[in-house]
Amino acid sequence: MKPDWDKLMSEFKDSKDVLVADVDCTAAGKSLCSEVGVKGYPSIKYGDPSALEDYKGGRDFAALKTFADGLGPSCGPANLELCDDAKKKQIEEFTALGADKREAEIKEKEAELTKLESDFKTFVDGLQSQYKEASDKKDAAVAEIKSGSLGLLKSVHAFEKKAKTEL
């Protein structure tokens, strides 16, 4: 993916509306990556720098270029002319809240997201534990059957079958 990403950065290097860049999350960019929620590598984010979203499209140059071609300014407080009436109203409501209430709501929503992630992880861990337990139980039962009389039973059956066909 790196060569395609480098090519995409080159294609958009002079764009006034779209920034295509990369950040090394293992070195100097570690704090930025943590701040924007990078959890795995490579990650692609897009959108308003204060509210980046995860890109879920193709990773080849053609898919990346097609997506990037559709990027540009979007609805937000800095570009109200790009917003529909519902979004303009929502922006007005958020503005009227004041900084302290907005900050409190942001923290509340982020806490909800953290809880959702935590609950999901707990659920998946439980599933993995159940899977391991069932797999171990099955493996033990298979081993018991195979180490018991199954092999000898098959051997006797094959011997008898062969003896009958020789008569």
Q: What's the structural blueprint in terms of helices and strands?
A:
Blueprint: H1 2-11, H2 30-36, E1 45-46, E2 53-54, H3 61-69, H4 85-97, H5 99-166
Helix pairs in contact: 1-3
Commentary on this structure:
The structure is a single chain. The chain contains 5 helices and 2 strands; from the N terminus they run ααββααα. By secondary structure, the chain is an all-alpha fold. Strands 1-2 form a two-stranded antiparallel sheet. Helix 1 (2-11) runs parallel beside helix 3.
The H/E string reads HHEEHHH
State the helicity in percent bands: 55-70%
Strand content: under 5%
Residue stretches low in confidence (pLDDT < 50, at least 5 long) are: none
Q: What's the tally of helices? A: 5
Shape descriptor reads elongated
Distance N terminus to C terminus?
A: 68 Å
How many beta strands in the DSSP annotation? 2
Sheet/helix structural class: mainly alpha
Summarize the structure.
The chain is an all-alpha fold and about 170 residues long. About 65% of the residues lie in helices and about 0% in strands.
